[in-house]
Write the structure tokens for this entry.
Amino acid sequence: MTNTVKDNFVVTLDYKLIVEDEMMESTEDGEPIKFIQGIGQIIPGLENALYGLKIGDQKTVVIQPEDGYGEYDPESLQEAKKEEFSEEIPLDVGTFLDLENDAGDILSAQIVAAEEDTVTLDFNHPLAGKTLTFEITLTDLRPATKEELDHEHVH
């Protein structure tokens, strides 16, 4: 009997991610991705689409924002004074920053506007609000080891 994708299996996947008719990323010239199915290591819409697939299966999966990186939230824009940043950081539109909040969590933001004394930071994921199209090929599948499950990543 051929194994099919189910929870606690290590899935190896080649993929192309297409957003608004533009290829955003691909494993074509690199390594496929490996992850443990069912523990939230990939976006929910893609994870749900994999159940039941077997090695060699190919599929195109269209994922709406709510099952991908969420809807775009205009409340996630925040203005900050340039003087709050180290002088070594380029405060240009398009720059991505990892910032620590008061609770010690690291948050990623992109500078979306720069004025003389301030920058506007967007804490939305860059693919928030976007419909994602994945072209996938399942290349390998095996049960995760106890150690992989305990550590919640593939070894």
Observations:
- The longest helix spans residues 44-50.
- The chain has a mean pLDDT of 94.
- The chain has two domains: 9-69+127-151, 74-122.
